[in-house]
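Justification of resources, computational component.

The compute hours requested in this renewal are based largely on the per-chain cost of generating structure records like the one below. Each record pairs the submitted sequence with a full structure-token output. That output is archived, and it is also reused by downstream analysis tasks.
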Amino acid sequence: MEREGQLPLGLRERKKARTRSAIQSHALRLFREQGYDATTVQQIIEEAEVSESTFFRYFPTKADVVLFDDVDPLMVEAFRMQPPELRPLQALRGAFRGAFAQLSAQEIADQMDRMQLSLSVPELRVVILDQFAGAMQLLAEVLAERTGRRVDDLSVSTLAGAVVGVAIAVMFSMADDPTRDIVALFDESIACLDKGFDL
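The structure output for this chain reads:
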């Protein structure tokens, strides 16, 4: 799917993005209706009307259907487009708002479903720790790029870890109350981090 500010995708890339999105969308619906454990890969394949080889080309495991997320590239691009005079956390707040503004209501609902599943299914909770590590590394890279510091600078890695900690806190808050506005919650949490805590 093409997003504002991104280079147009070629026909092949658009077709692949649509196929991946359709498989994930059918899978999330089945998980909602009958539960993650009760849903088989074969059921997802049948609902999405794809071959077994196509499914596994996009998602090596059933867990990957939940854990795949194409929002990170949007966040990175939005972060890089923020005005240079903004401090890193201010730029991150703007990037998060900008990235989520590009998502449809259904895409945001799917994000919420994925988040709920990631926290409620033990198999997924274990795997998501690896994703947090990857997110922290990616964030450290763009923070280093923006600040002109090395990616292994302690200040850079500490800030990246703190932001991932905020994301984890937001996930648990959303799990407790899925009606909350994730963009507003993340924005408020990063603002707290930016100004420091008076605890």
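The CA atoms of residues 129 and 135 lie 10 Å apart. The mean pLDDT is 89.
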